[in-house]
Automatic annotation (TrEMBL):
The lineage of its organism: Eukaryota, Viridiplantae, Chlorophyta, core chlorophytes, Trebouxiophyceae. The chain crosses the membrane at residues 15-36, 95-116, 128-146, 153-170, 182-203, 215-238, 258-279, 291-309, 315-333. It is found in: Cell membrane. It is a multi-pass membrane protein. Keywords: Cell membrane, Membrane, Transmembrane, Transmembrane helix. Residues 41-81, 338-357 are annotated as: Disordered. Its main location: membrane. Residues 43-81 have a biased composition (Low complexity). InterPro entries: Diverse_Substrate_Transporter, EmrE-like. This is Drug Metabolite transporter superfamily. GO terms for cellular component: plasma membrane.
Length: 357
């Protein structure tokens, strides 16, 4: 979709795209959180309160078996211990932990999305779609450093997916004289850099999604992403104003591009808000390495949208073989490993691993 946006007359630059997408995405998800997230938070508060009361009651009953003076002392201790954990949990776990998680994920995603948006100015949609699949190898590597234990089949699937993506990226049949300049070293480096940050976000999301409701996490990280985009815009605007350049240079064709506005709205609501929520929800149960193999289908969608929206690029034998490898990778990675109950390196052990924060 961004390549379609860049193909318009007077297209917006990366700063304008990130600002519009980030702010609209954050607004939608914060609204969703205000509607649905508060109910989940109240339920969590009630559960925590019940747990604290049960603990206090148990401690009080135990202390009643002793002398009255010892019982009084025990009750005072139970009262203090029941209040302190409840306050600590509310103050030191819920609010700060969600804020820390949202800030970390928001910054990684801002870097990933921003660099990818810049890279798409220098390469085609299909090539970028496959280069970004370097995450197929980066994600399990990063996950292994945080305590996750991807199964043998997941590793095999990642390698097959990466091989398939490289095969398609090596297919230069769609490149003609006019497009050759797009395949620049800078564009490739930008896409690969964004792949690293996407992988890092995927791994860390796998940790946080198990502990924080999806709508809370999606809203929080999108709010940080939107704030970072706004800060970037302010810095760019200040620089342009100091240089005497009009702010309209950030999007020269903003007044006459109805299609451009439509694409911007779709990018914010579809790949932005909806994808952020679904990603957080999915990774509450799916380990990062397995999630990345699912993401390996992205190049297939890139080809499909490039064909429908940009006139398409020829699907040669090399492209078809590479695409088949990506699909096969997903099938291989999803197969369970029968480790005979050893629990050493199978999928079960990988799914239940809890990375250190």
């Amino acid at each position: 979709m961004l390549r379609l946006l860049y193909s318009q007359d007077g297209p917006p630059g990366p700063v304008a795209i990130m600002l519009f997408r980030g702010v609209l995405q954050a607004a939608v998800l914060v609204t969703a959180y205000s509607i649905f997230g508060s109910k989940g938070q109240q339920a969590a508060d009630g559960s925590s309160s019940s747990s604290s009361e049960a603990t206090a009651t148990s401690s009080s009953n135990g202390s009643a078996a002793g002398s009255s003076s010892e019982g009084s002392s025990g009750e005072a201790g139970a009262s203090g211990s029941s209040e302190a954990p409840s306050f600590a949990e509310a103050l030191l776990r819920r609010i700060p932990f969600t804020a820390i998680a949202s800030t970390e994920l928001g910054l990684w995603l801002f870097l990933a999305t921003g660099i990818q948006t810049l890279g798409l100015q220098l390469t085609t949609a299909t090539r970028a779609g496959f280069l970004i699949q370097a995450t197929a190898l980066l994600t399990p590597l990063l996950a292994s450093f945080t305590g996750e234990k991807p199964s043998r089949n997941v590793w095999i699937g990642c390698i097959i997916a990466l091989a398939g993506c490289l095969a398609i990226a090596a297919d230069q049949s769609a490149t003609d004289g006019d497009d050759a300049a797009l395949f620049s070293l800078g564009g490739d480096a930008a896409i690969l850099s964004s792949a690293f940050f996407f992988s890092l976000a995927t791994v860390r999301l796998g940790t946080y999604a198990r502990l924080i409701p999806a709508v809370n996490l999606a809203a929080g990280k999108s709010l940080v992403l939107g704030g970072a985009a706004l800060a970037t815009f302010c810095a760019a605007a200040a620089s342009m104003t100091a240089a005497g350049d009009p702010l309209t240079d950030l999007w020269p064709g903003y007044a006459s591009s109805g299609l451009g506005w439509a694409v911007m709205c779709y990018a914010a609501l579809g790949p932005g808000a909806a994808a952020a929520f679904l990603h957080a929800k999915g990774q509450s149960v799916v380990p990062p390495a397995e999630a990345q193999v699912i993401f390996s289908s992205v190049p297939l969608w890139s080809i499909a949208f490039a064909f429908l929206l940009l006139g398409g690029e020829p699907l040669t034998t090399t492209t078809l073989v590479g695409g088949a490898a990506v699909v096969a990778a997903g099938i291989v990675a999803s197969r369970k490993v029968d480790d005979g109950g050893s629990g050493g390196g199978g999928d079960k052990g990988g799914k239940q691993a809890s990375p250190d924060l």
